[in-house]
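Table S4 entry, TMM65 protein.
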Amino acid sequence: VFFHNALPFVGFGFLDNAIMIAAGTQIELSIGVVLGISTMAGNTFFSSLFPPPAAALGNLVSDLAGLGLAGYVEALASRLGLSIPDLTPKQADMWQTRLSAHLGKAIGVTIGCILGMFPLLFFGEEEEKLEEK
């Protein structure tokens, strides 16, 4: 149950973070420069409560892509041999089963999000050039 729930969420977390970082950076470097919005909108208390516009728009793009890609991620997980656990209705309703499913999703999305940060390896130079301007 844990792995059945974790594997698709690794894929989801990976795609979500990778798309959000790439989209947010591109928004900041293109539209953001023109409109004066930034992912680095200051270190004030107000900016910590509300995401900067480029980050928020990157998150929007990522969420919309996630809606379209969710079925593909699940299909890929099933192609990798991830079978649905054969549980009785009573077993599926046990607290241990629900806990395993939730932990699998939480740990899966955490691992996926960490792996999905790989675009940050490519954006160091663009950020420095943007700060210089």
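The chain has one domain: 1-34+51-132.
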